Amino acid sequence: MTEASLNTFKGTAAQEEKLQEVIAKHKDMPGALLPVLQEAQGIYGYLPIEVQQMVADGLGISLSEVYGVATFYSQFSLTPKGKHRISVCLGTACYVKGADKILAEIENKLGIKSGECTPDGLFSIDSCRCVGACGLAPVMMIDDEVYGKLTPDQVGAIIDKYAEEGGK
Amino acid sequence: MKLEELNKIKKEHEQIVKVRKLIASEGEKLAKETGYRKQVLVCGGTGCTSSGSKKVIAALEKSLKENGLEDEILVVRTGCFGLCSLGPILIVYPEGAFYSQATTEGVERIVKEHLKEGNVVKDLLYQETVHEDGSIISLSETAFYKKQLRVALRNCGVIDPEDINEYIAVDGYQALAKVLTSMTPDDVINEITASGLRGRGGGGFPTGRKWSFAKASQNDIKYVCCNADEGDPGAFMDRSILEGDPQCIIEAMIIAGYAIGAHQGFVYIRAEYPIAVERLQKAIDQAREYGFLGKDIFGSGFDFDMEIRLGAGAFVCGEETALMTSIEGNRGEPRPRPPFPAVKGLFGKPTVLNNVETYANIAQIILNGSDWFTSMGTPKSPGTKVFALGGKITNVGLVEIPMGTTLREIVEEIGGGIPNGKKFKAAQTGGPSGGCIPAQHIDTPIDYDSLIELGSMMGSGGMIILDEDTCMVDIAKFYLEFTVDESCGKCTPCRVGTRRLLQYLDKITEGKGEMEDLERIEELANHMQSSSLCALGQTAPNPVLSTMGYFKDEYIAHIKDKTCPAGVCKALTKYEIIPEKCKGCTLCARNCPVGAISGTVKQPHVIDQDKCIKCGLCMSNCKFSAIHTH
C-alpha cells in the first residue's frame, strides 16, 4: 500500500456501511467475489486498495486473491474515473469505420490518453470492445448516453457540452 | 402451473399477438376483436435505444394521449427487428407499415395522419417497402428480409419481451410442458441429437452429444449454464435474443436441466449489456411467479431454478472452462481439458454449457420435431444461423439465414451491397478467432465446414464486411492487438506468441518488414495453434494466417515496395495534392493542424512531407478530390 493511495482515498462512513451490507448479503454464496467487487465499484466508483482490503476481510480471503481478480477483469478500475466517463468503441465494426480517428481526436482535445483522467477530474477516456450498437458505428458513450455515426469533427462540440455543464 | 392453465393463458393472449402476423385484411378484423384498433411496435433493443427510441416512445405515448387515442392503440416495446442501421424503427399493425429512422416530430405525424385519420405516412416509411406506384410492400418481401428465415429470432420484434403472457401466446412453454409430461430425459436427448443441432457459439459441437455426456456423468449435483458472454467485437446476436425473447432461453435451460438431471442454472452475461440483463432478470422473476421455475414444475416432480452472473469484461471468459472459473469467483483463466465440463465443470460438478443462440433453437425442435429442423440448412449443418452484419455494408443489422446461404446472397441481397460504390473485398467471420472470405469465394455456401475449409470459422456469428479501402495487414493487426489485450497470460504460447506476432505486424506496417518475417510468422503460428491451452491462443493466429493466405500481395507490397495499397498504414502513406485538380481554395492549408500545407490562393498547394503527420484532415476536407494517397 503506497502512501499516496492512503492519502487520496476518501471513502465515507456511509459508503463503508453500504459495502458491509453488500458483503453480508453475498458472504455465503459460492463465487461471491465478483458480484461483491462489482457492487463495491458501484459504490466507490473504483476499487482502491483500501476497498479491496475491506472486501478481503469481509469475505475471509486474502488481499492478494482480491487484487488478482480486480486486476484481471477490464471492468474493474484501481484508479478513479472522471465525472464523465468517455468510452470509445474499438470493436471491429467501429474500427473499420474509423473509430481510431475518433479516439485520437478525443485524446487530442482533452490532452490525455486512453485510460487516463483529466487533472480536473471531469473526464476520463477508455476504449471498449463493442457496445453492440454496430448499426451506428463508429460509436462512443459518454456516461450512459450513446453517440453514433460519429465523424472526428463532431467530437469537440459534444465534449464541450459536457464541459460547460460540468463547469457549473 | 398446469397444462390447462398454460393453455388458458395462451388463449387469452393469442389474438393480440396474431394481429402482428396476419396480412392486413384479416388482421383488421381480428384487431377489432382484441379491443385495440391498431398496435404500434417500437424496437427497444440496444441499437434502436442508442439511436433514441426511448424519446420516440415517450413522444408516441404523449401524442396518443393528446389525441385521445391511448385506449384504442396498443404500444408494444419489442426486441430487435434486425435493421439496426435504420433505427429507431416502429411498425404499425394490422397494416404492417414499417417506419424507419423515426423522430419525435415524425411520430406526431404518424399519430395524427396514420393512427387518427387512417392514412399511412408514406414519406416516413422505410423506402424499400414503398412500391413505385405508391403501394406498400410487405416487409417480408423486401430484399433485407426475403431470404431470411427466423427460428432463433422468431419472437424478436414480435412480442413484448417483458410480458411472459405474450411469450405464452406464441407457444411459449409448450415445449417444456411436452417434455415434462410426456418425454423421458433420453427422449429429449435423442430428439436434440437427431436434429443435428450444433453449438452456435462457434465450435459447432453437436448439442445432443454434449447433453448425453453430462447425463451419463453420475453425480447428485449438476449444472446447466448459458454462455451469454458475447465477447467477439462486432457480434450482437446473443444480446438481441436476450433482449427480444428472454423467456425462450429460460425454457430451453429448464429442458436441458431435465435432460441431464440438473436443478440449477446459471446465465453468465456481459455486464456491458444492461438492457439484456434487466430483461432477463424480469423474465426469470416472471417465470418463477408462474411456476416454470421452482419446485414440481408442471406437477412432474422436477425442480429447477436459475440465476444471473455478470461478466466483468474478459474475452477469455467466453471459453467454457474460463467462464466456469469466473462464475466460481476467480480470475477467469481456462483450465486444461480433460476433464471436460460434462464430467467436471462448474464447482467441480458435471455441467452443460451452451450458447444463447443454441438454446433459442431448443423449444422449437421439441415442438416441431427433429425432421422439421433438418429440413432447413445443409445436411451437416442443419437449421439457421444468426449473423451480426456490420462494417462496410448498407444494411447493418441482424440477419438469420438457413445454413448454406451463399455469402453473395448475404452481401448483395440481404445486406444491400457496399455503400459509396466501393468494391467488396472480403468478409471477416469468427472475429479474433476467425479469418476472412475473399471476393473469389463469395459464392461459397456458408456452414460450419465450408468456413473451416476456407481458413475461417463460424464463430458466434459476427460478419464484418470489408471494402477496397481496408488494409488486410491492418485488420490482422487489429485482431492481434485485441488478443494481446485479452490473452489471460496463463500459458506461454498465447501470452508471448500473440505479442511476438503483433511485433511482426507492427514491423511490416511500419515499412521495416523483411520477407523472412512471413516465414517466421507461419512457424510461430503453428506453435501457438498446437500448444496453447485454450481456443483463444489456438485460434489467435487465424486472422494473420488467413489474410496472409488470401492477400499475400498486400503483405509483400508493405515489405518490398514499402507501400500500403489501401492507403491505411500511416507510415507507408503519403498524402499528395494533384496540381491539376487543386483550385487553390486554401481549405486544406487552413485545416492542417501542423501547418504542413503551403501555397497561394487560386494556385495549386503543396504538402511538406517532412511536416505532415498523415492525419488525413486535408483529404477529408477537400471539395475537389484533389488530394490522394499512395
Weakly predicted, low-confidence segments of chain A: 1-6
Shape of chain B: globular
Shape of chain A: elongated
Largest sheet of chain B: 5 strands, mixed
β-sheet strand percentage of chain B = 5-15%
Helicity range of chain B: 40-55%
Portion of residues within helices of chain A: 40-55%
Order of strands across the biggest sheet of chain A? 2-1-3-4
Q: What value does the Rg of chain B take, in angstroms? A: 27 Å
Question: Explain this structure to me?
Answer:
The complex is a heterodimer of chains A (168) and B (630). Helix content of chain A is 51%, strand content 11%. Chain A has helices spanning 3-8, 13-26, 33-44, 49-59, 63-72, 92-95, 99-110, 152-167; strands at residues 84-89, 123-128, 140-142, 145-147. Chain A has a 4-stranded mixed beta sheet, with helices on one face. Chain A starts with a helix and ends with a helix. Mean pLDDT of chain A is 90; it is low at 1-6. Chain B has 5 domains: 13-139, Glutaredoxin, CATH 3.40.30; 164-374, Rossmann fold (3-Layer(aba) Sandwich), CATH 3.40.50.11540; 384-470, Ubiquitin-like (UB roll); 473-561, NADH-ubiquinone oxidoreductase 51kDa subunit, iron-sulphur binding domain (de novo design (two linked rop proteins), Up-down Bundle), CATH 1.20.1440; 574-629, Alpha-Beta Plaits (2-Layer Sandwich). Chain B contains 26 helices and 18 strands. In chain B, β7 (294-297) and β8 (302-310) form a beta hairpin. In chain B, α9 (185-195) runs antiparallel to α10 (207-216). Classes of the chains: A alpha+beta (168), B alpha/beta (630).
